[in-house]
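Morning!

This is the sequence you dropped in the shared folder:
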Amino acid sequence: MRASPLSPVDPLRARAAARSTLAASTLAASTLAASALAASALAICALVGSALLAPPAVAAPDPTIMGAVARTQTGGDLRASKAISPTAEYTRHRITYKSNGLTITGIMNRPKGEGPFPVVVLAHGYIDPDVYWSGQGFRREQDWLARNGYVALHVDYRNHAGSDDDPEADLNMRVGYAEDVINAGLAVRNSNISYIDPDRVAVLGRSMGGGVVYQALTIAPGVFDAAITYASVSSDPVDNFNRWQRERYEIGNRILKAYGEPKRNPELWARMSSRNYFDRVTEPVLAFHGTNDRTCNIEWARETQQALEEAGVDARLVEYKGADHYFYGPWDDSIRQVGAFLRKHLA
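The structure's back. Tokens below.
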């Protein structure tokens, strides 16, 4: 909230009033008037001084879906390093690209051969940025995709690894991460790297990255040709805030100060929800979730699926009975379904 400006003080009018009072009053009255004037002046000085010393109010970033829609996404300048760890089936490269003025880093697995190969952009789940390393997460998927003829482009996000910092990343309800994923897709679309096919691009998000994918699909429909999520967080930010951020007192308090309690400011929180904008989604969506996921409740996935269907999206939810958040048992079956889905939509 911005502080209200102080009312201006007219010193000439104040002095004229003081002279009139002195002329018409007794010595005692004059003394009282002078004392009152002095006290008033001291109070004004104190208020002005406080205003001058107080730090300027900083406007919170716009965390709403339509706020992000209104911003121009400027992904481009995709660059890949020489191979850093080649295998018999693929080579691994460090990459950078531009995302709305920020440089974002990542890791790319390139299949052996000339290509051009379709691309799958990977949006990883939550890992503390203080301990995260470039390309961390999605090790199974990165390997499988490259072995099966897809370029796997793993996004580090802002504030992660070698990416540029964004001091408001925690406050903007992951919209900044979604913009980094969108701009990764645009960087691929705009790339002239010979082994990349810019006309075949999908996105895959896991856990927090699943929620990032749903945001990306509503903010910039058409950037991707297909979308996949694993064990996604909720598409309603209230669920995610209550589950994780509320108890992280520093960031939780900042969020509440900026946007208010969800129950007291439901309209703003509704505008932050990708679920309320699923009618903008143009891509087919394949989601996987375990019924025994104790990190991201299966009901979140069911509610998201229902909202996608009601919005007319080509969406399918695959539930694995008894599976947990990490898909140790059913992963092989799920990745076979991913392969069929990608062959269909990136043909």
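Headline: Strands lie at 76-80, 90-99, 102-111, 117-123, 151-155, 196-206, 226-230, 285-290, 315-320.

More detail when I'm at my desk.
O.
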